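Practice problem: predict the structure.
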Amino acid sequence: MTTEIGDSLEKYKKKMEEEGDDLYFGTEELYEIVNGRVVVKQIPYKVNPRIVFGHDDSGPGGDGSGDDDGDDDGGDNNGPGNGKSKPKRGFNKADIVDIEKNWGIKFTKPGRKEKINLEYMIARQGYQENQDATLDAMLERQIMSGEFKKRGLKIDIKEEDIRYDRADAKITLENSAHFIIMRDVSGSMVETANLSKIISLYVAIGLSEMYKDRVTRVYIAHTDYASEYSEEEFFLNVMPGGGTSFSPAYSIINSMLEGTSYETTLNYPRKIDYNTDDVYVLHITDGEAFDRPQSLEEISKMIPKITRLMYLQIGGMDKSFGDDLESRFGDKIRTSYISPQNTMSNVKKAVTELMGGTNSDGS
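Answer:
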């Protein structure tokens, strides 16, 4: 079935061929909220040709989204320099669900949501008479006393026969968690902004599909400044630029855990009760932090209160920050390192390495 965007792509390409110009064809991804869900649309555009020395790993427009390993998921848009296809980034929920089978989160805390389950029982004292149970009790009494054998069944209800429905309220705690997605949007992440968004979106959709309202999704974006954003703002409005510091973002998480004020675009600051809720943090960055000591200090305060910190580095030559996390904090850390190419293999590698090894039911 051809989509409207697909139709426009073909018409646009045909028009370019008729005009005979030297411009290349590319697409730009737009993120929108439709019926409460994030969707991705691809808009066609023309880009100027570029001179490339050696192997070109970037896609149309130099956005780092070419497919250098041939893992093309259906795109047919040739980028300059390498003649390879740029993958389409429409999201098929079935693909995400298929990946979800191999990953999940683990619930280790008692939970925060109290549920009252009414258990109806038959008793001699209660709220409302149960006629069926009362007749059964009468018949049993007549049989045991020999009355039934002498004269057969006779409706003769006595006080001792009356049975009632009684509701016992049982309070249970439901396992729950907060999952914080923290994205580096500094200037050095401009080329990988789409890949960073796509991975964030896969995780968000996966959490929504597997855990519904049991997992609260939280979003933080940072440069050398950090703030909490709504889901819509996080995917649609946060623009890359500026320097890179990790500590402001980790400081916000500590404020959430401690119940103190912090920078947020929401109507009120969030308070996370880590005694009852599991807390997961996913940090997506290229590893270029100008405040390593301060960041590690903030993480040291955070680690005892959370269940796991997942560190995803996209590109970047220096892996020492992730190495520091693993050596200092051990089992509470998971790391993944992927190349900056915007490919499905990179998306799958990231979510599998960070979220894999735990069944989706948390066991």
